[in-house]
Amino acid sequence: MTLKTQPVQVATGSSDHESRLVFEDGLLVAVLVQLSTDHASDAGKWFLEAGFGRADDPHAPVFDNLDDALAWIARQLARDVVQI
User: In sequence order, what are the beta bridge partners of 24?
Assistant: First the structure.
């Protein structure tokens, strides 16, 4: 699996503007936003603004760096889909 990122500006309603679209095989799977100084101790960390498919998480995680965020997305996409 190869994830590709594309820098983008996202209107989040705060001063968080540094963002990345994350693609797998040409499909958008996530939007990551780097947290600004408005977020005190989390400033500079990356937040899952939106995840799609298996990258969706209702408890949007925060990551120390972009590499950690991409590794988490890769793990989510690689996990087995449980059918009910």
Answer: 3, 27
Mean pLDDT of 52-77: 94
* Secondary structure of residue 40 in the 3-state scheme: helix
Give the SS3 label for residue 59.
Answer: coil
Q: What is the pTM of this model?
A: 0.85
Residue entry with tokens 């939106």: 50
Mean pLDDT of the 58-83 span? 88
Query: Which alpha helices (DSSP H) does 1-84 contain, by range?
Result: 66-78
Report d(CA 16, CA 44) in Å as an integer. 10
Secondary structure of residue 39 in the 3-state scheme: helix
Contacts of 13 (CB under 8 A, 6+ apart): none
